[in-house]
Amino acid sequence: MSTLASMPQQISVGYKALVAEAVKEINEVPVEEAIAMAKRDDVVIIDIRDVRELWREGRVPGSIHVPRGMLEFWIDPESPYHKPYFTEDKTFIFQCAGGLRSALATQVAQRMGLKPVFNMEGGFSAWKKAGGPVEAVEPKKPQRRPE
Length: 147
Description:
By secondary structure, the protein is α/β, with parallel strands linked by helices. Helices cover 37% and strands 12% of the residues.
């Protein structure tokens, strides 16, 4: 048996510290302000939740779903996965379920040069609690391959 396999992991920085560090570096927007901003044409809500969360909870109408694992690749114009909406002159508000994952996503987007970017305080949970509009998201049916 390898000695590497038997060594316990020593996590030196936890998610709470990472989020706290991110929050110090980013701008956050209160959910009430985000609800008002979402009505503007120059604002894009970026939803980084897992697609199953969207199916279960719904989403902010007009928001764009960006899986957290693809964020850096979709932002970067040199990536083969780049999404053109990230090059538009818009304000980007990131949100997840509670504001923690989106704080980290906002930090990364800001580090990559996207601006202006904000994290929505409290995430989608706070959005719903504040009475923000929600639309259902239906799971996509699998595409059938031609026989």
